[in-house]
Design goal:
Its cofactor is glutathione. The chain is an all-alpha fold. It is built from six helices and no strands.
Length: 148
């Protein structure tokens, strides 16, 4: 509704959520390109279409690109938590910090995963991104406890 489009917190949440979804699409496209380049397909029908059943196989480079599995485990919960958190009427500045930290952490996590950056870059990025999620979850629980 137009009223939601005036809500600074919801608009910030929408912006960062959209960036994260676009990042997931980019990773999926990269995965597909690496599959084609390495001729390593997850399904026999794709292998047959691209040279034969010998290409129905796993490849470590393709598996590394599949960072979107980890994204799904983290971004989908963020989408739920962020949407509900937005309804709690938090400070727009504090909410923006929550959304930005999560988004930046996930982007760094993906870059670290795809480029094989030295440890502990990826795990630090993962952990930092979890902080705003735990914060939002705690605030949601505190706000909803009287109704359970």
């Amino acid at each position: 509704s137009p009223k939601m489009m005036e809500d600074k917190v919801f608009m910030s949440f929408t912006f960062y959520s959209t960036i994260l979804i676009l990042k997931m699409y980019v990773v999926a496209i990269i995965t597909g390109q690496v599959r084609l380049r390495k001729k390593a397909f997850a399904n026999p029908e794709d292998a047959l279409r691209n040279g034969g059943l010998q290409y129905y196989r796993e490849d470590p480079d393709v598996e590394r690109c599949r960072a979107h599995r980890n994204d799904m485990e983290n971004i989908f919960p963020f989408l739920f938590l962020g949407a509900i958190y937005s309804l709690l009427d938090p400070s727009p500045a504090v909410a923006r910090i929550h959304f930005f930290i999560f988004c930046a952490g996930r982007i760094v996590h993906t870059i670290a995963y795809l480029l094989r950056l030295k440890a502990p870059t990826r795990s630090v990025a993962y952990s930092v991104a979890q902080l705003p999620c735990f914060s939002m979850a705690l605030q949601i629980l505190l706000a909803t406890t009287p109704y359970w």
